[in-house]
Amino acid sequence: MTDQAAQRVDTPSRQADVPAPFSVPQLSQAQLAEFRRDGFLLVDGLSTPEEIVSLRALYDRLFSERRGWDKGDLFDMIGRDDTAEGKGLAIPQLLWPSRYEPALPQTQLAASARSIAVQLLGPQIESILEHAIMKPPKGAATPWHQDDSFSHKGSRIVESISIWMPLQDVTVESGCMCYIRGSNLGPLYPHRSPNNDPRIHGLELVSPPDLTHCVAVPMRAGSAVIHHSRTIHGAGVNSGDQPRRAYVLGYGVKTGKRRLLRRDYSWNLEKQTAREDREIQSLSPLKRTVRKIKRFMHGQKF
Fold first, then answer.
1. For residues 139 and 259, is the Cβ–Cβ distance under 8 A?
2. What dotted CATH number matches 7-297?
3. What are the backbone dihedrals phi and psi of residue 18, each rounded to the nearest 5 degrees, phi first?
4. Are 215 and 1 in contact (CB under 8 A)?
5. In the chain, what percentage of residues exceed pLDDT 90?
6. Dihedral, 8, 160, 236, 59 alpha carbons, nearest 10
């Protein structure tokens, strides 16, 4: 894959929470075509070294204080976390970290990511995902999967992307992202829970992908790799001696009700995770009851 540095345009501040002035990446027509063809795209210059250092300290604090554990926002991506109490997780993941650190959406990194999403999907985008992943030293590999596999019945998201932003340089040895080039143009393949254990939150392809067109994407801190929700991707083991930190923002475009997803995937219906149990228990009695009714109506196991 060609590592083209993004062109840059000066953008005046239009919101009180965005510093002014600063530059955001402007994608070229060649880059837009590359993303549509390959299903992923590397872009440089989303943030400054100074901001990355500040974000890294904030990020480490979120995980060291185990923010979001009781609400089910902090969990193990590829392992059971019913007895860990937020400690010793194989790959800790935190959903919606800005709930616990409101400064995150105010950063240049977040503003650059949203600008890229608008360029790829149009101005009608909606924020559909925010998560932080901390892969510890000697941490496990992230299994091959497609983000579309997590969709649920009633979803109106017709197209979505994830913008994966490391807070330190990432190499093949430290577990950089890997993609199957062109898989965004193919089908959604069958998935399952890792180790066929429905108590694990994550998903993996039932059959390993053909690695003929596999591309590893090492990158510098402050850069990002964007991938389509249909693109097959994973990440290797972090064989280094430092954590591999990644901040991920997802954006999507909704469609009309006639095109919504009309069924749940079997691999999601079988899920029985401690993460979701903690989330339900953190709700008010009324919301807890409504949530359980919805799970029953979707045919989810208890």
1. no
2. 2.60.120.620
3. -115, 120
4. yes
5. 73
6. 70
Angle between helices 108-121 and 49-64 (to 10 degrees): 100
- 211: nearest Cα among 187, 192, 183, 188: 183
Cβ neighbours of 147 (radius 10 Å): 20
| 259 pLDDT higher than 70 | no
Closest CA to 93 of 135, 61, 129, 54: 135
Which single residue is written with the structure tokens 């979505």? 160
- State pLDDT tens for residues 79-93: 988 766 667 899 999
The residue type at 264: D
Alpha carbons 115 and 226: distance in angstroms, whole number: 12
Question: What does the block give as tokens for 251?
Answer: 């954006």
E-strand spans in 69-213?
A: 74-76, 92-95, 126-135, 142-145, 157-166, 177-180, 191-192, 204-205
- In 19-114, which ranges are E strands? 22-26, 40-43, 74-76, 92-95
* Closest by CA position to 1, among listed 244, 249, 179: 179
Residue pair 95/157 in contact by the 8 Å Cβ criterion: no
